[in-house]
Amino acid sequence: MTPPATLAPPKVQLDSTTALPVLPAIPPDEEPGGDGLSAAPHDAAPPPPPRHLDVADTTIVASSTRYVAVSQVQGTLRSGSKKPGAVRKVAIDQVIEWLRGRKGVAVPADWRERSSWEVGTDTGAKQCWWETDGSHVAMRLDEPCGQLPGRHWRVEFVLALTAKEVVVGTRLSVLVQRGVEPQVKPSVPGLVRLMNSKLEFLADGTPGNGTAEFVASDADVRHLVGLISDRHRTIALVIIHTATARSRAAISAATLAKRVAGIARVVMIDTGGAQRLAHALGPAGVIPRNGVRLYGRQFDADLASASCPVLPPESWPGRDAVGQLEDACAVVSVSVDDAEIDVPSFAHIRQLIARERRRQERERLTSASEEVVDEIASLRAALAAAEGDVAAAEELAAEQQNRAEETEEQLRSALAKLMIASERIDQLQAAQRAAVNDVPLPETWAALERWTVEQFQDRVVLTAGAMRAARASVFENIPLVAETIALLGNQYWTVKTTGSEEARLDLVEAQKKLYVEISPAGEALNNAKLKGQYQTTYQGRRYTLDQHVSGSSSRDRRRGFRLYFTWSDDLQKVIIGSLPEHLDNTLT
After folding, report:
1. Positive or negative CA dihedral for 181, 185, 186, 191?
2. Are 126 and 143 in contact (CB under 8 A)?
3. Antiparallel, parallel or unpaired: β 460-462 and 573-578
């Protein structure tokens, strides 16, 4: 079975012998113009200056309803004199090693004997699918992000085996829940580097060995022009002006080439070569002197000033510039949506495999029916079952490809939250009954301190500063302070850890019963003279008391009540720093 044409690599190469038109000689009296290396003719309107590389070139805007592609790598694999079948085996072994070792996927022990399998966690947080028919392989891995809750990654890997080569493609996509930062820094899946460690990857027919080429001759410049203009190019082109291959810019170019192996091609060009490139492409071919220009896919000379950004010499070279270009090259890999060029998706290859299985079943039925008449009925039943499975698989693949995936992600999130909320509510109710109904409320500050540790040591902290302020006060209603601490350790703690609407209603009701109110501490936090009062220390770390519980506002120190606290996400605790009297504020 031959792979889809979309996986075939482009034919244009820098070292190709394809004949290109001879470039005109540089007029001897022409002078460099602007920050580029070739001036526009005197009788032509000056072209708009090229746009500088910006954040839009180096980030992807994610969606909360569908996975958005972040980067993709496509090309062919080879390994010395090994035949395609042997290369395919090494590539698949690398994918399985990556799933088991890097991603912790429980790959079935008999995966080599199975044409399809699916594994995942009980909560559905991580899911992996695998399909193969011998000639094609399709893998998809969905998993939550380990650094940012609410962000989900998807890695798709597809492989097609022909008589002459092994064609592969890897795509990384992202989905974020609503309220999560949608700006995503692109990257290349580690699976690509892992395969490149044992195999040789070729992108656009060129080995992705991570080296920067130096272009100086007329022939090389002509071939570079052809490569820039190739509509079937799948990777970015980074062209760097440098007078010599031993310059500081050349060192950064070598670093960049290693980091963008597989997604971009890095070319250095000297002054003469840059002038000839500008003559061939016009303003679209102007490279900033000692700077860089990035050429994306499906180059259009008329739009080059906007679509082919540059890094001027004041920004290049440097570590930040290398990182920006690396990110921009990854964005370029998914900047064009062209089904005739781009790597097919997991769902598309899955459909091809399903159709091949159906074809094989039909051939088997035809052959068997000619030889064994008695088995026709059973074979027809098997074919019907197989076609039913194929139809279901195709329907599922189409549904996965077309439907918005927001519902699926919300269900997973809701299930996890429900499990956590149920357990915590049970714990909270048990603790609340013990704290409020079975244990008498303390009548002294010392008893209050012991009572808080006994009842809420894993939820509420009374700092040393809070107890000093309490013992120095003349406040009389210590049981009210205990009830307020119980409110913070029960209803408030449940709201902060579960976020459920039921818990919020319980908190509102509890405040009404005690005639207290939880609210922000106010503008005093920003007052240089007062903010020291609104800080406390716990376990060697300083915390700002940005919340307070207000009770009676009486000016009588025996009756007026305030409790100042903050919430620690790291400790999952309420930290009380001052009670029971008012702290100074901007009004007092």
Report:
1. negative
2. yes
3. parallel
Q: Residue 75's pLDDT is what?
A: 86
| Residue 453 and residue 423 in contact, taking contact as beta carbons nearer than 8 Å | no
Residues 217-250 have pLDDT tens digits of 889 999 999 999 988 888 899 999 998 888 888 8
Q: What are the backbone angles phi and psi of residue 201, rounded to the nearest 5°?
A: -100, 135
| Angle at alpha carbon of residue 437, lines to 432 and 440, rounded to 5° | 110
Q: Which residue has the tokens 């244990």?
A: 439
Query: Residue 385, exposed/middle/buried by CB under 10 A (0-12, 13-18, 19+)?
Result: exposed
Which residue type occupies 454?
Answer: E
Torsion of CA 453, 455, 457, 458, to 10 degrees: 180
Report residue 380 as tokens.
Answer: 């027809």
* 174-213 per-residue burial string, b: 16 or more CB within 10 A, e: under 16: bbbeeebebebebebbebbebbbeebebbbbbbebebebb
Could you tell me the CA-to-CA distances from 203 to 10, 76, 198, 260, 288 in Å, in that order? Answer: 8, 7, 16, 11, 27
pLDDT digits (tens, 9 = 90+) for 304-344: 888 899 999 998 988 899 999 999 999 988 888 777 777 77
Q: Which of these, 414, 371, 478, lies nearest to 125 by C-alpha position? A: 414
Edge-first strand order for the sheet with 517-520 is: 460-462, 573-578, 562-568, 547-550, 517-520
Residue 74: half-sphere exposure toward Cβ, Cα within 13 Å: 29
What is the Cα–Cα distance from 220 to 270, expressed in whole angstroms? Answer: 12
pLDDT in tens, 399-439: 777 675 665 666 566 666 666 655 665 555 555 545 555 67
What is the percentage of the chain residues whose pLDDT exceeds 90? 36
- Cα separation of 242 and 265, whole Å? 16
Please tell me whether residue 263 adopts helix, strand or coil conformation. coil
Tokens of 331: 């964005």
Q: What is the rounded (10 degree) CA torsion for 253, 259, 264, 269? A: 10
Over 80: is that where the pLDDT of 40 sits? no
Q: Give per-residue pLDDT as tens, 104-160.
A: 898 999 999 998 999 986 666 789 999 998 789 999 999 998 888 888 899 999 998
Return the SS3 of 411: helix
Task: Give 437-466 pLDDT, tens digit per residue.
Answer: 567 899 999 999 999 999 998 999 999 999
CB atoms < 10 A from the CB of 515, how many? 11
Instruction: Compute the distance between CA of residue 52 and CA of residue 357 in angstroms, rounded to an integer.
Output: 51
Cα–Cα dist 333/325, whole Å? 12
Residues 194 and 71 sit within 8 Å (Cβ to Cβ): no
Distance CA 330, CA 310 (A): 16
pLDDT of residue 39: 45
